[in-house]
Specification:
Blueprint (H helix, E strand, L loop, with lengths): L31 H19 L6 H7 L4 H4 L6 H25 L4 H11 L5 H13 L10 H30 L8 H15 L11 H16 L3
Length: about 230
């Protein structure tokens, strides 16, 4: 007589191996701030290479993957973006100056470091300075929209702040008997003008390396200040 079949036992579902491949992560959306930074870097590339007036705002929108209308969620206009670029360039300049002078207790090493910090730029920063120098005059006129005007004022205040930073530091050298007395505001402007003039003609892929340009111009800036 045949034996009855043994009852089948249900197997528990197999546990996932600890080494099994994880589920693919959902693609992360670019944050508004990150997208804004991408737009600004793209605009700097076009403004600095092709020229601000020659660049169409729609070209920037296409390159960053936005429709023309969507671009206005980040900037009211091409000029609004320009003012933000200029304000950021000047803010970076001031930060570099503060870091250079703050790293030295002695005045003259701090002065030399501050002058050199104006030339310690990467390719993007060089393009950004070229845009600043080319369109600096546009900061003078009042803008027609609140957001543009806010950005314009930030850029203008950073220009004035940079001049005052330099004037105060030069005055400190005069007070310490380390540099000749002079009109500190004019001297600050002369020192800054020597730096900004470089970005009108300098190209990273040109024949003269930036280190050589810095050596030459820092020497001339020191001479203007009154240091051999």
């Amino acid at each position: 007589m045949a034996r009855p079949a043994a009852p089948r036992t249900k197997r528990a579902p197999a546990k996932a191996s600890a080494t099994s491949d994880p589920e693919p992560a959902a693609p992360q959306k670019t944050s508004r701030r990150s997208k804004r930074a991408i737009i600004m870097r793209t605009a700097v590339k076009h403004f600095g290479t092709d020229g601000y007036d020659e660049t169409k705002w729609a070209e920037v929108a296409i390159e960053v993957g936005l429709g023309g209308t969507a671009l206005y969620h980040y900037f009211e206009s091409k000029q609004h973006c320009l003012f933000e670029i200029m304000a950021d360039a000047l803010a970076s300049y001031r930060e570099a100056f503060a870091a250079a002078t703050g790293a030295h207790d002695e005045y003259l090493p701090g002065l030399r470091a501050a002058l050199r910090s104006g030339f310690a730029l990467d390719d993007y920063e060089i393009l950004r300075m070229r845009v600043l120098v080319d369109k600096q005059g546009s900061i003078g006129g009042k803008s027609s929209t609140p957001r543009e005007e806010e950005s314009r004022l930030r850029a203008r205040n950073n220009i004035r702040g940079l001049e005052m930073d330099w004037a105060a530091y030069l005055a400190r050298g005069v007070a310490g008997g380390l540099i000749p007395n002079n009109d500190m505001r004019l001297l600050a402007r002369a020192v800054l003008a020597m730096n900004t003039s470089v970005w009108q003609w300098y190209r990273p892929d040109g024949a003269i390396p930036l280190s050589e340009v810095a050596d030459f111009y820092v020497g001339k800036q020191l001479a203007i200040i009154g240091i051999d």
